[in-house]
Amino acid sequence: MSLKGEMRRLRELDWRELDIKEAGVWPWSLQLLCCLLLLGATFYGMHWYLAAPAKEELERVRGQEAQLIRDYRSKAAQAANLEAMREQMGVLEARMSELREMLPTGAEVPSLIDNISETAIDNQLAIDSIRLRGTVTREHYIEQPFDIQVQGDYHRIATFLAGVAALPRIVTLHDMTLSPEGGSGQRLRLSLLARTYSYRQSEEGAP
């Protein structure tokens, strides 16, 4: 059958009378067209059902690629410096252990105050008062503030402050004020707030 004859059959075909049950006697060109349409619809359905989700997943993974590369480089650098980091961690842990030993426990605060009093007496200062305040609980430690008032000349007061700072337990000094005492102007009154600290876990774990 010639192509011209097939085209003529298509033009003369009454499309309203087509019956799918009689598809076998349709013109071969119409059968081919229907097969191509069916094949195209099948491929489109397979792409939509199988390929499209995979493509979306691929785009998502590509979007994460840059972050994954940065994470890999960061972890590779950490792995390369792991030994040095372990050494630094050991040094820091040793230093932390030393600092913890310098923090008095609650039972040691009275003896610390005795040491401060002895330091004042050694420097020939008159002690007006050393008075404890209430403790202040922080996240990792307990703060014990106390007020100190002593009298003496300027140089002895300076030596006293240096002696308190050099005590084996950590004591920090705050809000220091000096005021003349008496008419000569050589005798001074020192008022200050001192704080010492206790490691909170040690206090909680103590019996």
Automatic annotation (TrEMBL):
Return the InterPro entries for the record. PilO, Transl_elong_EF1B/ribsomal_bS6
Q: Quick one: signal sequence residues?
A: none
- Source domain of life: Bacteria
Name this protein carries in UniProt: Type 4a pilus biogenesis protein PilO
- Organism expressing this protein natively: Halomonas alkalicola
- Cite the source lineage: Bacteria, Pseudomonadati, Pseudomonadota, Gammaproteobacteria, Oceanospirillales
